[in-house]
Every structure is written in C-alpha cells, then in structure tokens.
Amino acid sequence: MTAQTIEAPYAGITAFWSNWRITPRQVVIWTILLLGGIVMVLPFVFMITTSLKFNNEIYELSLWPREPTLENYFFLFEDTQFVRWFFNSLLIATITTVSVLFFDSLVGYTLCKFKFRGRTIVFVAILSTLMIPTEMLVIPWFIMSKDFGWLDSYWGIMFPGLMTGFGTFLMRQFFESIPDDFLDAARIDGLNEFQIWWEIAMPLVTPALAALAIFIFLGNWTAFLWPLIVTNSAELFTIPVGFAAFSGEFTTDWELIMTGATVATLPTLLVFIIFQKFIIRGVMLAGLKG
Amino acid sequence: MANVSIRNVQKAYGKVEVIHGLNLDVAHNEFVVLVGPSGCGKSTMLRMIAGLESITGGEIFIGERLVNNVEPKNRNIAMVFQNYALYPHMSVFRNISFGLRAAKLPKEEVQQRVEEAARILGLEDLLERKPAQLSGGQRQRVAMGRAIVRDPQVFLFDEPLSNLDAKLRHQMRTEIKKLHQKVQTTVIYVTHDQIEAMTMADRIVIMRDGVIQQVGAPREVYHSPANTFVAGFIGSPTMNMMTGRAEAAADGLQIRISDGLTVPLTTGQSSRLAAGSEVVLGIRPEDLTLAEGPSNGAWTITGNIGVVEPLGSETLVSIDVAGQELTATAKGRTEPAVGSQAPFAVNLENMHIFDRQSELAIR
Description:
- The structure holds 2 protein chains of 2 kinds.
- By secondary structure, chain A is mostly helical.
- Chain A folds into 2 domains: about 25-70, no CATH class; about 80-285, MetI-like (MetI-like fold).
- Helix content of chain A is about 75%, strand content about 0%.
- Chain A has helices at about 1-20, 25-50, 70-80, 80-115, 120-130, 135-150, 155-160, 165-175, 180-190, 195-205, 205-220, 225-230, 240-245, 255-285.
- Chain A starts with a helix and ends with a helix.
- By secondary structure, chain B is α+β, with helices and mostly antiparallel strands.
- Chain B is built from 9 helices and 20 strands.
- Chain B has helices at about 40-50, 90-100, 105-120, 135-150, 165-185, 195-200, 220-225, 230-235, 265-270; strands at about 5-15, 15-25, 30-35, 55-60, 65, 75-80, 155-160, 185-190, 205-210, 210-215, 240-250, 250-260, 260-265, 280-285, 290, 300-310, 315-320, 325-330, 340-345, 350-355.
- Chain B has a 6-stranded mixed beta sheet with strand order 6-7-8-3-9-10, sandwiched between helices. Chain B has a 5-stranded antiparallel beta sheet with strand order 13-12-11-14-20. A 5-stranded antiparallel beta sheet of chain B has the order 15-19-16-17-18, with no helix packed on it.
- In chain B, helix 3 crosses helix 4 (about 135-150).
C-alpha cells in the first residue's frame, strides 16, 4: 500500500518513457532540422570565432582560435571610424523605421478606411512601386539628390526609405481586419479622425507594426548600395559601407569585418527581441474576440 | 425632451436607393424597435440617426434640433454595437470612461460617473479587466456602461444581443428593459429577431426594402398585421398562409383553397369580402390546434401528421391538409403519432385575410 502511494507520482513518467518510441519519421525530421540549424548557426559561430583570431590564422578553417584575442575589437573601436559608422547606421535605421511606421500606417489607414474618389488608383500606384527594383531607382534618386543638394548627407541617405510601398500595402491589409464599429464607437465618443487612427486603430495593429519595424530596421541597417552611392565622406558611412573600406584591391581585413559584423549584429538582435514581444502579444490580442 | 423625429428620410448609394422617404416619430422615453430581415435598411436608418451615415434627403430631429449636419459626438446620443466595439487594448474602466475623457471632463467626475454606471450594471469588480477577460454577457454590460455613462438623450442599439447564446440573450433582454426603466431615456433598438422586438418594445417598426410596413405596439402588430409580410415576419412559428378565392356558401362566404379544402368565414369576415375575391388566408399555429376531445362545435380539418416537434410547453405539428403544408400546435404532453391522421380545430375568429394582389389586410 505504502509502496503504491510512493510510486504513484512517477507512474505517468515511467509510462511515458516505456511507451516512447522513436519512429523513422521522427529521425528524418530531426535530422533535417539539425542540418538546417547547423547551416543557419555555423556562419554566426564562424563570424564570432574569426573575430577572436589573429590575422595570420583567419584562413584556417578551425572553429576555435589557437590563441583567442580581443585585439581586433580594440583596433576596431580605437583605430577605425567604426563607432561613427555604427552611430550613423543606428540613426538612419531608427529615423527611417519611425518614419515608415508613422507614414505608411497613416496612408494605409486612409486608403483602407476612407472612401474617396481615386482611392483605388492611388493604391494601385503605390502597389506598382513594389515592382520596380532598387537598382532601377538608384539613378533617379541620385539625380534628385544632386539637384536638391542632398548628396553626402544624412537626408540623402534616408529620403528614399522614409515611406515604402510595401509598408503601406502591409498596413492597409492589417487595418482591413479592424471592424468599423471600433472607429464608429470612437467617433461617437468624440474623437477626431487623427485621434481615432492614433488611439484606437494603431494599438490594434501592433503585430503588423512590430513586423514592419523589424523588417525596415534590418533593411536599413544592412543597406549597402544606396548609402555607398550617395556618400563620399567617411564620417557619413554606414556600417556596410564602412566595411567595404576594409576590403582593398589586394587584401581584405576579414578579422576586422568579422569583428564589426559581430558588433553590428547586436542591435538587430535587440530590435528583434524587443519587437518579438509585441508580435506575440498582438497575435494573442487579435486571437481573442473583444 | 428627447423625442426623435424622422421626416421623409432617404438614403441612396449611388443610384441605388435603400431608404425610401421614411417617416417616424419616437416619443420621449419611448422604446422603439426597428425590425426586419437583413438588408431592409434598419441598421442604415440607425446609423443615420447616429450621424455615422449621411442622409440623401429629408430631416432628422433629436429633441427640437435638426441634426442632419451635426457630428455624431455632438448629437448627444450613445450607441451599443453588435460586436460591442469594446477597445481590446483598454481596461473596462478606460472603455467606459473613454468618451468622458475625450470630452475632457474633470477626473473626479469621470471616476464618479464610471462608478455609478458600474454599480447600475454590476461591473464594480471588473473595472480593471480587459475585454478579452470577460464573458459575452459582461462585455455586453460594459458596452451598455459606455453608453449610459455619457447620459445621452437617445440610446441607439444595433443588434446588441445577436452574438449571445439563447439563454444569455433572454437574460440581457430583461436587463436592457430594466435599464430603460431605470435611466428613462429614449431608445431606438435594431434587431432582426422578432422575439426581441415583441418582448422589449413599446412600439415596433417593421421594415422591408427600406420602407416601413407597419408601426404599432407588439400586440397590435401580432394580432392585426397590416400585410402578409408583417404577418409572416412577426410570430414564431410563422403564420400559415394559404391562397384561395372567396365563394358563396350557405351562410355567407367561404374560401376555396383547393378542391379538397374550403374554409368557412365568420359573418364579420364575410361582410368585408365579395364573392370571387382572390385572397390570402392566414392562420397562426396557435389557432390551429390538435382536437383531442369532442370539438364542441369548433370547425375542424383533418391533417396527416408529418413532423412532430416537442417544445416542452407545447408541441408543434407539421400537417398536410389537402396538399397544404401547415403548422399546428398541440399540448406539451401530447405525442401525436407521425403518419397518422387527426382532426385539428381552427379558430375562425382569429383568421387573417389579406388581398392577394396588394397583400394588404382586409379589415
């Protein structure tokens, strides 16, 4: 009797392990997942370990450095303009992200919730901008920048990305899911249209805003072609453009590039971790009838 | 005084007119229910009163004030929506107080009004919760709280109970009625559920295709429907309708429905008809009852019993009478045998007669 009482709590666990069978299907799935995981993680591991290597060791494919060193980090922060480039990237990515979140959702909301003549034409025009590749836009952007005197300036780097067709489209689609009754209730409650958008509609599309924020921030953080074209001064370089300077005609300072990339990954991780919470919270909110 | 006056109001979307010159006067403190099938224009009418929808023509007065071009927030109305429209990211307190805060009322007054509304509706313990943490009935009460806290001249309800289950709906009907008695405000309530309309309204407005079919007290529209549409829409189960022709009988007129079925008319009914008139005869299921004993002189017809639906308090019986499918009633404990034949007594006094062409009641 006593033995039974003691054993009872473990009975379920024992039963689980005794009934547990590894099926061939599970083996295949796990193998694929494991390989996928390795493929995804390995470049990051390699990036970090390379940043800890001396120059003469970087072409060895060893995962762990013979003599780990922080020399590259000191060099990067003290003897290059990396801190400045980091600041530039952060400033540009942050301003662009805030601008996109504000204007794209404002335009998306307007296109979704207001009926006016030409609404569809405007929407189609915005959509059509998605079909033009950046490479084609670079020349008109450059001519514009030159004519307006925006070359080699923060504004010059940022202006093409302050509003996006993709963000407008995404936000419009999300605003579709908000019942008009919420907006009507707010109208009766005495809010003006801007307040309704800001206080009622925006909090209800938090998941979309979070997704868009991650997408836009990462896009601007890693942008290379346009910042390279529009900037000349090293003080205005963003991280990717600055890294290009580490690559000379005959040699490339891989250890510095890897060190910079390791540091540059941190803000993107931070952005993802912060906004991921909003995405999950938003999805939970949207999933419940309210 | 918060009477609502709707004068010749029209609404068109492009070339399609959905409300055709509607006239209605709602008295101060009256509870009026707009009822009709989907697409009849009742919600559009309510939204026009609220100012959420523009009007194409006509005039709307709230109190003595013409409100055609007045913003919703300035009409002194409150509206409860079908899906409650509670802001999911705000607590119950913030939801209820939202309009007051938007109007920049002092904090103390906001607090006081919300507490008062919460007390009336029994929401005191729920003020810190989010809408997602509430049951359907609680959400409905919060939506009403948001309305009454504004102390409006007119309450507008847009199918507020349609998302609730049957039991809760019954409970909320009672609560809304009690609330109306407590706050003494004009109420305009839209529903497609004729039971809601019957149980709650001082007056019912029955609409079809943007036109009012009848306005009257619940008993009036039930017992004296103005036309076949109202007769069919009000009442559950629906009224039995049979088309036929009036013809002379020994003592007045009778209606020939088919070769095997003629229905005699009372003297009063006969006096309103001429022989040869094409009519629609309406008999409510409760006026067509299973004759379980001697008929005591009541006129009976024999029907083949098709489907039996016991409801507890009564039993609905689908019968076939000379090719006509009719719904009759029997006592709750009766168990008529499917496939058998039985006599059914018809209460001739309560029969409704409509002109077949115009569909209007012949009175």
